[in-house]
Amino acid sequence: MKFTEFNLHQSILEAISYMGFENATPIQEFSIPVILENRDLIACAQTGTGKTAAFVLPVLNKLIDKRIRQ
User: Fold this and answer.
1) What is the 3-state secondary structure (H, E, C) of the chain?
2) Which residue from 43, 17, 40 is spatially nearest to 29, judged by alpha carbons?
3) Taking a C-beta distance cutoff of 8 angstroms, is the pair 54, 34 a contact?
4) What is the pLDDT of residues 15-59, one digit of tens each?
5) pTM (two decimals)
6) Is residue 67 pLDDT above 80, yes or no?
7) pLDDT above 90 covers what percent of the chain?
8) Rounded distance, CA 35 to CA 20, Å?
9) Which of 64, 61, 65 is nearest to 3 (CA)?
10) Which residues, 6+ apart, have CB-to-CB distance to 16 below 8 Å?
């Protein structure tokens, strides 16, 4: 799944693209939509599979949303 399919803010997508990432890992593909829907999540995966981005990207997206609404 491509990051563009998550409906993240353009600034986040630009940063992801700038770093050379195009496709999400399985943990990101599962986790990002769940977090964007404000649902709780417990997930585990091996080191280096993108768990941090799976958490941080939707949280950053929510912070941008909050800033835009203010």
Assistant:
1) CEHHHHCCCHHHHHHHHHCCCCECCHHHHHHHHHHHCCCCCCCCCCCCCCHHHHHHHHHHHHHHHHHHHC
2) 43
3) no
4) 999 999 999 999 999 999 999 999 999 999 999 999 999 999 999
5) 0.88
6) no
7) 91
8) 23
9) 61
10) 3, 8, 57
**Which pair of structure tokens corresponds to residue 52?**
């941090």
Residue type, 55: F
> Which one-letter amino acid corresponds to residue 7?
N
Residues belonging to the chain: 70
52-61 pLDDT per residue, tens: 999 999 999 9
